[in-house]
Design brief:
With 267 residues, the protein is α/β, with parallel strands linked by helices. The chain contains 11 helices and 9 strands. It is 48% helix and 15% strand. The strands form 2 sheets. A 6-stranded mixed β-sheet has the order 1-2-3-4-6-9, with helices on both faces. The chain starts with 9 loop residues before the first strand and ends in a 10-residue tail after the last helix.
């Protein structure tokens, strides 16, 4: 199950404390393959084990972010390898889990189209920035499929049930500025500023307390499945952990001394 190419399907580079992941199948608008998904899973693992990495940016090479699953590739597979449920379980779901569970903040820089699985993958990021020409489209129904890559979970929580159903059932593309107005993404920016803006956000995140950032991400991710009492209990637990940290002590000292804090290294 694969493709032959002299180019890696994922480029990973460091920009200081930021790891930049670039989906690199531009001739297919960076459509997902098992190889690309496996490379993403490995890249998340490598970033988490590198104490020098404090934030991640994900973008796409060429004219689009990601067109979703490479349907053409699936069609060429022998019947025994076309089990979509197995592909989701073995390749997509590990990446979804790693993005959600990672202590590192993840910023998506969406250029051009983000369609189907590509749109839902982008929306799993902690902060999503899109170029003004970008479009998000839940394209699944057009080919007789249902939303996957957590889209059925993410969309209602971001934009509410009415808009989530319309996005999924009508499969109409929406522009970045509409996505921003609906709360689907954080911000729409000029296309020529997209990557710089995303990296600047990631650098800002990288300059914060790594422990407080990780605990905040964990707290907010848990809120969707908790009732108020459970969320209050988790706030109490994680605030107790944060208050006992070296970063909190340093933050208080820096505030009192009117200087920038010197945060701890990632453990």
């Amino acid at each position: 199950m694969g493709e032959t190419s002299s180019e890696p399907s994922l480029f990973v580079e460091r920009r200081g404390a930021v790891a930049l992941f670039t989906l690199n199948r531009p001739s297919r608008i960076n459509a997902f393959t098992p190889e690309l998904l496996a490379a993403l899973a490995s890249a998340f693992d490598a970033a988490e084990t590198d104490a020098g990495v404090r934030a991640i940016v994900i973008t796409g090479a060429g004219r689009g972010f990601c067109s979703g699953q490479d349907i053409g590739l699936i069609a060429t597979l022998p019947p025994e390898e076309r089990d979509v449920g197995r592909i989701l379980r073995d390749f997509y779901e590990p990446v979804v889990a790693k993005m959600r569970a990672s202590p590192l903040p993840v910023v998506a820089a969406v250029n051009g189209v983000a369609a189907g699985a590509g749109a839902n993958f982008a929306l799993l990021a902690d902060i999503v920035v899109a170029g003004r020409s970008a479009e998000f489209v839940e394209a699944f129904v057009k080919i007789g499929l249902v939303p996957d890559v957590a889209g059925s979970w993410t969309l209602p929580r971001l934009v509410g049930a009415a808009r989530a159903k319309a996005l999924a059932l009508l499969a109409e593309p929406i522009k970045a500025e509409t996505a921003e107005a609906w709360g689907l993404i954080w911000k729409a920016v000029d296309d020529d500023r997209l990557l710089d803006e995303a990296v600047a956000i990631a650098e800002r995140l990288a300059g914060q307390s790594a422990s407080a950032t990780a605990l905040t991400k964990r707290l907010l991710n848990a809120s969707a499945g908790n009732d108020l009492d459970a969320q209050l209990a988790l706030e109490r637990e994680l605030q107790t952990e944060a208050a006992a940290s070296a970063d909190h002590a340093e933050g208080v000292r820096a505030f009192m001394e009117k200087r920038p804090p010197r945060w701890s290294e990632r453990s």
